[in-house]
Amino acid sequence: MKVKVIGAGLAGVESAWQLAERGFEVELCEMKPEKYSPAHKYSGFAELVCSNSLKSSSVDSACGLLKEEMRRLGSLVVPVAEKTAVPAGGALAVNRKDFSDEITRLIRSHPNITVINGEVTEFPEKNAIICTGPLTSDAFAEKIREHFGENGEFMSFYDASAPIVTAESIDRSIAFVQSRYDHGGADYLNCPMNKEEYDAFYNALINAEPAEIHEFDKNPNVYEGCMPVEVLAKRGYDSVRYGCMKPVGLTDPRTGKRPYAAVQLRAENKETTMYNLVGFQTHLKFGEQKRVFSMIPGLENAEFVRYGVMHRNTYICSRTLLDKNFMLKGSENIFFAGQMTGVEGYVESAMSGICAGRALADILSGKEPLNFPPTTMTGALIDYVCDWTDGQYCEFDPMGANMGILPPLEQTFKGKIGKQEKYHALAQRALSDLDKLIRK
Fold first, then answer.
1. How far is CA 252 from CA 176, 178, 248, 262, 279, in A?
2. Which residues contact 317 (CB under 8 A, 6 or more apart)?
């Protein structure tokens, strides 16, 4: 039986893989390289536009738990990410090109997947998964609006990416190697600031000139997890010093003391020839980025290979429109997956693709799709995003994996339980419940 997956981003490749591995003939439609969104540049599948990090590797963290759940569900993305990983301390970060190339190779070589290049401009009739992402082309977005009718309102927020500099242009007499509290490997470069340096940088940052938004909405809603650093800085003097520039767990070898503030740089590729400024998503003009970020000690002569950019992310009223399988209510097996559903983040998008692909395969095979318990990170995210039957909570902010959306623990502990002990118990409960579900 033939099925269609529209879009070859993280959600799309996971959906296509799940279906193909279950024997379905998959038509994977991807508009690149014939047409690119404002944020995409590379022709390969599963292109990572913002950070190259898939967040924590620890199973006792929210995103680490989600990745482990995905691995047990047969994920394509997670093992490829591990194969193409670059040093990032306790995080799973990848070489973007190697990651995309390997995903593309596996998808194109699968005997049950046929890749069709070109923009899709018609809404599918049945047996399809729409994974066109937060930058869905205008033509196809309009078709989705038309299909939804009175429920066709989209919600939008803005996403921003961080600049990347060459390794050789970083002053190693100032920037030092260390992960916070020495967790994981010493995989970060740190650019320390004293108070005077921070004051000068902070004032330059909050007064720098932003780029024009152009076609985007005049009043964008910026998702907290990708807040441009200049927007965050305007919330107060210590906002970035307690955020992306926090110095805790670091020791400047020149002074033997903790710096007043610090900028961390993470390897962008395995060869460590490029580094991105962690947490420095921005929408400043390119010239302003060069001027302001060159004030960071150690980056005075930095060569920028990519400046930060900001782009629109669009998502639908999934709570009204989609059931708990990511299927459009009342449709003939039309599913949505990825950030368009309101999940936020690379891993979360891929997760939704797995769930949608498995659900469509189950339905077409006459089986009941998996009903993920809310004690799993997968189930908790689905419960947050999809199928609020009363419809009154349609408006919502995108949600990424976090321990706060899991139900409280039922077990009791002797004495006061620490956060890490609690997270470990939540993770073990989640994986146990997922294993029980899969074994049924």
1. 7, 9, 11, 9, 20
2. 151, 153, 155, 394, 395
Q: What span, in angstroms and rounded, lies between the C-alpha atoms of 315 and 154?
A: 6
Give the full edge-to-edge strand order of the sheet including 113-117: 113-117, 25-30, 2-6, 126-130, 332-336
Instruction: Confirm if 140 and 120 have CB atoms less than 8 A apart.
Output: yes
Nearest partner of 76 among 28, 19, 5, judged by Cα: 19
Please check whether residue 320 is in contact with residue 394, taking contact to mean a CB–CB distance below 8 angstroms: yes
3 state DSSP class of 311:
strand
Over residues 368-384, the pLDDT tens digits come to: 999 999 999 999 999 98
Q: Which pTM value belongs to this model?
A: 0.78
Residue range(s) in the chain whose domain bears CATH number 2.40.30: 164-308
The dotted CATH code for 2-156+314-439 is 3.50.50.60
Fold for domain 164-308? Elongation Factor Tu (Ef-tu); domain 3 (2.40.30)
- Phi/psi of residue 433, each to 5°? -65, -35
Q: Tokens 């740089």 belong to which residue?
A: 265
Burial 226-254 (b: 16+ CB within 10 A, else e): bbbbbbbbeeeeebbbeebbbbeebbbee
245-302 pLDDT, tens digit each: 999 999 999 999 999 999 999 988 777 888 999 999 998 999 999 999 999 999 999 9
DSSP string, 93-142: EE-HHHHHHHHHHHHHH-TTEEEEES---S---EEEEE---TT--HHHHH
| Percentage of residues in the chain having pLDDT higher than 90 | 65
**In whole angstroms, what is the distance from residue 437 CA to residue 440 CA?**
6
Instruction: For residues 285 and 208, give the distance between their C-alpha atoms in angstroms, rounded to a whole number.
Output: 8
How many other C-beta atoms can be found within 10 angstroms of the C-beta atom of residue 440? 7
Tell me the CB-side half-sphere exposure of residue 69, using CA atoms within 13 A.
Answer: 36
